[in-house]
């Protein structure tokens, strides 16, 4: 915001006519109520968001609680050097990117397919009913989901090991200590929980399409497949593009609840289940390594910021109205 | 809009004894309709069955669970898991009270605070609206990460182990503020505000008496999402609440998942069991699932009443967030 500059002479202020400062005061006088209304949120944003943003400098420090955060010694990039010299840095980056890519692609495919199928169902009542059922998992917390998964995968009592696998004559599997199964499990669980939500968003877009397009297509003898390919998909493509690009912008941010709760944070599974978010949590609160943890967090934030920026740039290219900023 | 196909049965359909409904020209064939229906029945089952398994296990006999594993058809039904939880009810009540308080207070506060921020930046005549929109929006783009955020709350604000720490971090969500702003800007005619101002109404009164009543749909949607966020939160308890502190229901469930003993940490429960001559041989498996059922109950209840508003609300700001 504007700051008075004492070196500016009086005549200069007069020349400018409405100087910035008097203008600001005038706005304040007229809209002080607005400022008062915004104050609580401003205070919360400063504490919750802006001070932590400034706090990212601790990634460049060797934090010593005796000296305080500001008084601790600067260590330059050594936290980052140390972080990237570990093998874990590579594993968590790979896991985060691969999982999120799988989520983006599969969510898009299945929720589009579901939305189109819902839209074609003859019975509107049944369509609503199934949509509601699909929405149920979205209401459950990751803690609850971890219980549901445990009910199936528990080594001693789980439904898989005790009922399903014996039925097919397969030996029981120690699910929570064998990492090779988890990429599949986590993808299924994530889709199961969130597909209802994305399907509804695509449903809304499809419902918004003008019916005359389909009537015209029918007169021309277009089949259902052709209608879907040539009318439905092109007309909702802005929604698809925006949703996907936003997800790509967040490809470096993993769903902490999924990777922490559903895996029960089992150490034996880390090679395929540890992601940046769980690593930051683990190194900070369980191990207490502030330097490494904040370095990893800062890398994640900066890469995430650049990706959102690029994603938005891409959206602007395709459809200016849908760009975020 | 969705299907004129459904409504257009037409007058001819009524003649005769329940004439078979004609297939509309652009409707899918019977066989595809059947296939889609079967598919969704299966998928609906997949969504519901895991919950049913947990509920059934919680009502099973511990011995039959130990022998045959979690099963949809237990050999013996039993409610001793719930009896056990009842003996130790204070901890569950305490956690439920924390959850309820945080959810109610948090949702109301966050609605008030976000609406009060969204309204000024939705007003076209407010000269600083762009700055404050960006001030909010930037929090979506960049965050400081876990460590500085944690230190800000614990070292600077000293909020560790308080109820307020479970409320404050979720109070303002830039995403919802933008949805509210879009709604205020697009659905409330500026002329309405103008005329109220000419009548001499102060800004705050306009906000409370004109803007808010007109915005009930979007407020309800955001309120429901915030309710869900608060009720389902376990992350803040995990990070900010030490084990001796007041945890909420989700966190209690998380702890129970790791170790059923967490529930029996209270001497009263152990004493009660010992007095009955029970060996310290807890019905661990069924108690764990009973705890899950207690945690799931309220949200399934809320879900069955409000899911249609969620679905409606999702489309409010879905396209342009």
Structure description:
The complex is a heterodimer of chains A (325) and B (321). By secondary structure, chain A is an all-alpha fold. Chain A folds into two domains: 10-61, no CATH class; 78-322, MetI-like (MetI-like fold, Orthogonal Bundle), CATH 1.10.3720.10. Chain A is built from 15 helices and two strands. A two-stranded antiparallel sheet of chain A has the order 1-2. The longest helix of chain A has 35 residues, at 20-54. Chain A is globular, with a radius of gyration of 27 Å. The two termini of chain A are 21 Å apart. Mean pLDDT of chain A is 87; it is low at 1-18. Chain B folds into two domains: 24-81, no CATH class; 89-265, Orthogonal Bundle (MetI-like fold), CATH 1.10.3720.10. Chain B contains 16 helices and no strands. Chain B has helices spanning 4-7, 30-58, 62-68, 80-87, 89-122, 129-141, 146-156, 164-167, 174-187, 190-198, 203-214, 216-231, 235-240, 249-258, 267-275, 284-314. In chain B, helix 4 crosses helix 16 (284-314). Chain B is flat, with a radius of gyration of 27 Å. In chain B, 36% of the residues are buried. Residues 1-17 and 317-321 of chain B have low confidence and may be disordered. At the A-B interface, helix 2, helix 5, helix 6, helix 7 and helix 8 of A face helix 1, helix 2, helix 3, helix 5 and helix 6 of B.
| The CATH superfamily title of the largest domain in chain A | MetI-like
Quickly count the domains of chain A. Answer: 2
Which stretches of chain A of 5+ consecutive residues score pLDDT under 50?
1-18
Order of helices and strands of chain A: HHEHEHHHHHHHHHHHH
Which term fits the overall shape of chain A? Answer: globular
- The assigned CATH architecture of the largest domain in chain A is Orthogonal Bundle
- Integer-rounded radius of gyration of chain A: 27 Å
Name the assembly state.
Answer: heterodimer
Which overall shape of chain B is indicated by the principal axes computed on the Cα atoms? flat
CATH hierarchy class name of the largest domain in chain A: Mainly Alpha
Distance between the termini of chain A: 21 Å
Catalogue the unreliable spans of chain B.
1-17, 317-321
- Per CATH, the architecture of the largest domain in chain B is Orthogonal Bundle
Integer count of domains of chain B: 2
Largest sheet of chain B: none
Proportion of helical residues of chain B: 55-70%
Order of helices and strands of chain B: HHHHHHHHHHHHHHHH
What is the count of β-strands of chain B?
Answer: 0
What is the CATH homology-level superfamily of the largest domain in chain B?
MetI-like
